[in-house]
Each structure stands twice: as structure tokens, then as C-alpha cells.
Amino acid sequence: ETGVTQTPRHLVMGMTNKKSLKCEQHLGHNAMYWYKQSAKKPLELMFVYNFKEQTENNSVPSRFSPECPNSSHLFLHLHTLQPEDSALYLCASSPTSGDGAGELFFGEGSRLTVL
Amino acid sequence: GQNIDQPTEMTATEGAIVQINCTYQTSGFNGLFWYQQHAGEAPTFLSYNVLDGLEEKGRFSSFLSRSKGYSYLLLKELQMKDSASYLCAVRDSNYQLIWGAGTKLIIKP
User: Fold this and answer.
1) Contact B109, B82 (CB under 8 A)
2) How far does chain B reach from its first CA to its final CA, in angstroms?
3) Adjacent-strand bridge partners of B31
């Protein structure tokens, strides 16, 4: 138990569907992150939020839309995805971002399959 | 560009010692992290090095040489539960984490 909870753990969707991934952290952290993890590839940073403000968007396609209503919750809204978007999506948190970040605390991930 | 290299897969025997290497070329350096990730689980923090030398934490140790752009993770007295992927990550001059692709460690009885 890392203090970061992601739901759903598994998701199968068609290319025309709309779905959302949810992340919640109980650590009192102020920074939250979305990462994409594909087999045998490095973790890809997608988005960073610090104190609810988006501070990083690593050229992520607009079919991925993040939302951070407060420092404890992070969503990733998905629409018109492509099969190559199939991957494990990891949420992480840290006390803050940037030079005060320290280690990241990860959730167990949402395994997404796009048909 | 920025790059982290680590072996894709390693195999070791229960009770033995294994060393997982990580070399990096990054724009600046603000620390190196090792994470462990069991299949289907969250990556969990193992160690952090920012100064040269060895950091020991129980059966696990991590070494850093900034001049060589090199680190290793040393696992002693291997147990079956150490079968996992080990991820190396470097924080660059902009405090961005640059990740390696991970090393899958297989422990055999």
C-alpha cells in the first residue's frame, strides 16, 4: 500500500469510447503526475500538477485530458484513443514538484487496452 | 539527447549477489533514484544517491560515480521475492526525472 490508489485497475475500450482514470492520494502531497508505461520502454511523463496547477504537458495528444480538482485527486479523461495507447497508466505523487520533489509514490496503475 | 542505459534482463541464483548497472547521459544531475517494480504492482522507491559513493540499506546498496555517469544497485543474499524489475532514474538540471527502461531480474532456486 503506497498511499496512492488508482481505479479502475483494468480497462478495455473501443476507439470511439470515452472513459476516465482516477487517482487519489492520501499522503498530503501537493504534486501529482501521470505516467505512461509501455513494455520494455522507459516511463513517459505525461502531465504534472503542483498545487492543482498544471506545470507540465509533455506534448501529449489532446485525446488525453487531465483534470486535477484538488491536491488529492487526479483524473485522466480518455476519448477516441488509438490501439497504440494501450499501456499501463501510472499515477504518482510527491510533496511538491521540481527541486523539492524527493521520491515519487506510485499507484499500482490502470492497465488500458484499446481495441 | 538524454539517455539512461541499463540491461534488459538478468538472471541470478537465490542466496547469491547481483549487481545491476545504470549509465546515464543527462543535461545536468540532481540525483539518481532506484525503484523496484514487481509485476502488476506499483514501482516503489529503493534508494537515492546525489553524492559519489555507496549508500547501504539492508541487503540493498546503491553506488554512484558522477564523473563516470554510472551507478549500480547491489542486491545481496538474493531471495525469490527479489524477482522484479529495477528502474534507474536521474533528475536532470531542470529537476525532470529521466528514466531507464528497467532491468528485469529473474531469481532461480
Assistant:
1) no
2) 40
3) none
How far is Cα A43 from Cα A34, in angstroms, rounded to an integer?
A: 10
Cell representation of residue B16: 547469491
Give the nearest chain A residue to B94 (CA atoms): A98
Of the residues B95, B103, B104, the best mutation for testing chain A's interface (the one with the most A CB atoms within 10 Å of its CB) is B95
Residues A3-43 pLDDT 10s = 999 999 999 999 888 999 999 999 999 999 999 999 989 99
Contact B79, B23 (CB under 8 A): no
Residue listed under C-alpha cell 500500500? A1
Distance CA B87, CA A110 (A): 19
End-to-end Cα, chain A, rounded Å: 31
